[in-house]
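Anyone up for a design puzzle?
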């Protein structure tokens, strides 16, 4: 099976893209009145075509016309004749289980998408001898929470059968499919100490040369972004996707700091959530307003006040700290 050995490329064609990234031509407007300049024709965005493979090996497919992660998974599944629920997560420009290249809310126009699908299911018994298990959780935006990091020396790190990239399917036979990462992290934190519990995990299907990382430093440089200042396709949970310039180095650094705070306070990492919080902080005049803004759009997270204050300081006063 041939695997793409070069950075994926993006094709631009003349017809507009569906789902809001480009618009279909509308009804022609009436001609302008005599003596008035003719209106400038609307800019038609090119159709965006991305290349994709299954991470464990497959022919190369082409996908287009998606505006969020669920639609992206559906397009990939259609190309390869599988169910969208088979896809655990996607990485950009590598077929390996590399959490630094995880697909989040933005895709560079030249990025090649690798889809990691369900492999073997395994059950692991864990005894919580400490408050923290040493797991950092993220999710794929389509119903699956999975392990993004395992802290060195932690309870989970001592269980060699648990790996980065494993999807958490159930806790004590209670399915968590459809739960967000912060809900799963809360469930794990609330488990009583000294009482064994069972994790049902699904590992991504792997080719013979795929070696995943078990642990990484909590401050991995550049982890939150794959693109490097070029135009990207921004995927949104609600509303159409849009073409945007890639984040600046300062915005990347701010998002990285906020992602680190999410891990410290909540045991999750989510680069898209971090970017959303950076945007909110930049537009808020102070901590109190930021707390209200975050509560209005992200109220389900129930961020504590001290966390919001640290987010404000990390974005608006990274050198001098909170004012």
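Challenge accepted. My sequence:
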């Amino acid at each position: 099976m041939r695997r793409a050995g070069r950075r994926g490329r993006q094709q631009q064609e003349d017809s507009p893209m569906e789902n809001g990234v480009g618009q279909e031509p509308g009804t022609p407007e009436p001609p302008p009145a005599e003596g008035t300049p003719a209106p400038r024709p609307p800019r038609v965005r090119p159709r965006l075509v991305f290349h994709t493979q299954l991470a464990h090996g497959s022919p190369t497919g082409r996908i287009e016309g998606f505006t969020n992660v669920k639609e992206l998974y559906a397009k990939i599944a259609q190309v390869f004749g599988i169910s969208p629920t088979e896809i655990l997560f996607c990485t950009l420009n590598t077929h390996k289980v590399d959490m630094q290249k995880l697909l989040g809310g933005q895709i560079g126009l030249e990025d090649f998408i690798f889809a990691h699908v369900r492999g073997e299911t395994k059950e692991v018994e864990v005894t919580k001898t400490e408050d923290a298990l040493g797991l950092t959780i993220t999710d794929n935006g389509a119903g699956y929470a999975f392990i993004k990091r395992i802290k060195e020396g932690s309870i989970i790190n001592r269980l060699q059968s648990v790996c980065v990239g494993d999807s958490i399917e159930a806790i004590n036979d209670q399915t968590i499919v459809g739960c967000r990462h912060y809900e799963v992290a809360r469930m794990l934190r609330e488990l009583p100490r000294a009482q064994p519990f069972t994790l049902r995990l699904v590992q991504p299907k792997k080719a013979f040369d795929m070696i995943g990382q078990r642990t990484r430093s909590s401050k991995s440089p550049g982890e939150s972004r794959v693109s490097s200042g070029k135009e990207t396709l921004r995927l949104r949970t609600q509303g159409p996707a849009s073409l945007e310039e890639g984040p600046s180095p300062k915005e990347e650094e701010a998002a990285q700091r906020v992602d680190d705070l999410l891990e410290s306070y909540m045991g999750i990492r989510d680069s898209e959530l971090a970017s959303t919080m950076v945007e909110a902080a930049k537009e808020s005049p102070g901590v109190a307003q930021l707390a209200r803004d975050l509560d209005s759009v992200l109220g389900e997270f129930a961020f504590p006040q001290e966390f919001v204050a640290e987010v404000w300081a990390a974005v608006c006063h990274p050198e001098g700290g909170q004012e």
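A detail worth pointing out: The mean pLDDT is 80.
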